[in-house]
Description:
Structural class: alpha/beta
CATH architecture: Roll
CATH superfamily: 2,3-Dihydroxybiphenyl 1,2-Dioxygenase, domain 1
Number of helices: 3
Largest sheet: 4 strands, mixed
Amino acid sequence: MNTIGxxxxxxxxxxxxxxxxxDKLGFEVFVDSEESSLRFVHLRLPQQKDxxxxxxxxxxxxxxxxxxxxxxxxxxxxxxxxxxxxxxxRLSENGVHFTKPRxxxxxxxxxxxxxLYGNEFVLVELKTVAAD
Length: 132
C-alpha cells in the first residue's frame, strides 16, 4: 500500500452535494462521469491533486439511513490549513456551520464543522515549533 486516494461520503443527491463542497468549502470537481448507469463524482482541494472525496449516492434504504452518520458522530476527516483565521472566516461567511467553537492548544488551532448532511470535519492549523 502506498497512499489513500479517496474518502467516500454517502450523499442523498449529487447536485446538492457538489454545490455544497464546491461553493461553500472550495473543492473542485475533477471526475464526473457516468458508466453503466453509475455516476462517479470525485472532488479535491485545488492544492492537493492526489487525495479527494468520492461522493457516492446512497442507493439502498440502509445506505440512505447512514447519510450524515457514517462515522457515528465522530469526525470523518481532518482538513489542514496554513491560515486558520482566513479559512474559518471564509467558511463561516459561506454559511458553513461550526459545531464547536474554535479552540487552540499548544500544537494547533482547530474548529469542527459539518457538511450539508451533518458529517463532521475538523479544520486544523498546526503550530510550527521553533528550532533550538
